[in-house]
Write the structure tokens for this entry.
Amino acid sequence: MQKPSYLLILTLCLWFSCQQDDDRDPDSVKPLSIDSLQQLPEKPAPSRSLQQNGKFINQVVFNNIYRPANLDTIPFPIIDEPTLNVLQHQERLLKLIRPRKNHRIGNLTFSTDQLAETVDILKSRQHTLPFDLSKVLDGYQIWGRDRRGHVLFTAYYTPVIPVDDTQSAEYPYPIYDRPSNWIGPLPTRREIEQEGALDSLDLAIAYAKSKADIYYMQLQGSGYAEYPNGKRVLLSYNGTNRHPYRSIEKYLLSRDDWNVGSVSIPGVKEFFRQFPELQDSVLFQNPSYTFFRARFRSPQGAGNVPLTGDFSIAVDKRYIPLGSCLLAAVPIYDPKINRVTGHEFRFLFAQDTGGSIKGPGHIDFYFGTGPEARKAAMNMRSYGRLWLLLPKKPEDLFSMQQ
């Protein structure tokens, strides 16, 4: 009798192994614990189709704003203690906002209750690497800026700026609260800063050393005012003058007669230091003006819950409602070689909005407080991907169990 070859034996073993995997009960699959992480395979090498800015070549065009996605192939992040803390904030946010039975965004319809159920599902997988989430959650990828799934990731932070209670030669620039009884359109930045449109209303909260510091704090939406004695007070967002936002960075780059160099925050501040006579004319290109109010608490976003570095994002809520839980492929940028080297999967939470965040192709990533957060935020301007997470419908769960 002829002996079976080793190749035949190996083929039969692989066949039986696949049959056993196919017969497993989906409900019997347990999330992987943190202790088992060392058993995971190494991450694959970056795709050759990855471009310098984080986009991928040859991506298909989406027919709708949201497209159903297969989550089976996506590695979910660990739901650790910091993630749980943010989920508790998200739970509170959803209780504070007005519930809606129908969020209709393109072809997708869902409710506030479904957003809350997503939070509960994520909380139930605490302290695990939850690779079974694809069995209870659906993912919907947003079409981004180019309708090919590419979303621009920028970042913001909470700055700390030196201030004093009284106006002086060292602290000449007022930081204003919003006027409460103003009739008609609110004044522009030029009218406020050059013409003194608010000077007689006793609205100054504090006085800053630098007009540029105020400007960039307005772009971030909040900041800490640090007094000479070391005391810090949070100045939180209190609305705008409702004039359109215009980028001074684009304006600076359009001026061929000026050698601006870098249009990063330090670069623009250095330009103003060298050419102080140009500061006002540049800043006045942006007529939008943000007002503040003093708070004795941590920075909060439009969702009225504390913002958390590396988790909270600002969104255009017409496309991504506040309270949404998202899975993100966050671009990993290497400043040494000036390119995106890959993407890291993270859970992100829509907890804020921003005047410059418009449309389904741009989010702002919150990085925290102070100079380190500012440095990290400066390096974030690349493309990633986003999936809105929603609970599976009952009929989908039933079909999975058949």
